[in-house]
Design brief:
The protein is mostly helical. It contains nine helices and four strands.
Length: 222
């Protein structure tokens, strides 16, 4: 019996859904993209888009695109100020409404992401996943996912990654539909107070697991 990630829906229907969804968003909300681009440029500066490398399917690195949510304010020494001091009310609004994520539909159209899947995390985390957790990269990363509707940043890393693997193992149209519906409810109902957090509440995964390895007397990842 094929694994869920290798089933007919995952291999063919899901990608078709992604393409149609991305095209619809671009057509229906082109005005919103233009408006947000102008507002970001006026309130936060340029570049309008924030770009960062993230691992995708199979761990292949791609460039994630989002609307920027912070300014480039610097201290007297010329260094960027802490994130909390560069975040504005407008930036917080973008994150809480998830409007900063809209450019990711371009990543979806290109086939680097999916509407639903494990969220793409930092490349520096790659060596620190367990063998089981690494299966989160068996599918395209998503704009939203099972972990996001199950607590998002309020979950600890072990729980979040376990949700990602559970999604990969149980991927289906019904599950994707439930995740999209729950995500829409959170966004439009503003029921996700953690949406504006700069980083996961529990901290940086690589640092946490590096410290744990050191405490256990084990050298390096793995």
């Amino acid at each position: 019996m094929k694994a869920a990630k290798d089933g007919f829906y995952s291999r063919y229907v899901k990608r078709l859904f992604d393409i149609v969804a991305a095209l619809l968003v671009f057509v229906l909300f082109c005005w919103l993209y233009a408006l947000l681009a102008v507002l970001v440029r006026t309130k936060l500066g340029r570049p309008v888009l924030f770009r960062q490398e993230r691992p995708g399917r199979g761990g292949k690195i791609f460039t994630l695109c989002k609307f920027r949510t912070m300014t480039d304010r610097r201290g007297a020494d010329g260094r960027l100020l802490p994130d909390s001091e560069r975040m504005t009310k407008f930036g917080i609004f973008l994150r809480r409404t998830s409007l900063d994520e809209l450019p990711e539909f371009w990543n979806i159209l290109k086939g680097e992401m999916s509407v639903v899947g494990p969220r793409p995390l930092l490349p520096e985390y790659l060596p620190w996943y367990t063998e089981e957790e690494s299966h989160r990269h068996d599918v395209r990363p998503g704009l939203t996912g099972l972990a996001q509707i199950s607590g998002r940043n309020s979950l600890d890393w072990d729980s979040r990654l376990a949700k990602d693997v559970a999604y990969v193992n149980g991927i289906s149209f019904a599950l994707d539909a439930r995740i999209v519906w729950a995500t829409a409810a959170k966004v439009f109902g503003r029921t996700d107070p953690n949406a504006a957090a700069d980083t996961a509440k529990e901290g940086n995964l690589a640092q946490i697991r590096r410290q744990k390895k050191a405490a256990d007397g084990v050298q390096g990842p793995g």
